[in-house]
Write a structure and sequence with these properties.
The chain is an alpha/beta fold and about 130 residues long. Helix content is about 20%, strand content about 35%. Strand 2 and strand 3 form a beta hairpin.
Length: about 130
Amino acid sequence: MIGYITLGTNDLSRATAFYDALFPEIGAVRLRESDRSVAWGMTGDSPAVGVCKPFDGQPATAGNGTMVALKMDSKAKVDALYRAALKLGGQDEGAPGPRGPVEMGYYGAYFRDLDGNKICAFCIGAAG
């Protein structure tokens, strides 16, 4: 159902450098770019995550209650993405670990990018 999402940025170069360094942790690559935006994904026809300067010309802000959740296929990838985000200057919003009822098997980690956008890396029922 999700085709792509975009996260606003006030500094496209800084945001692009953050995600260019972060997304190789999970095998995502840069798919497309313009003077206003850059997007990454696994393949050209998979859902993508992009950063962009707001089209209305107003400053980008992180939405209160807005979060992008990126599905991983292992706890190891959740851990790796979280660690890489913090190393790149992202802010901790919740260390990797189980969340919710044990039987659900949800494992997640939360961080904010350099523009304050909240990101979740998660897997459900994955082994290591």
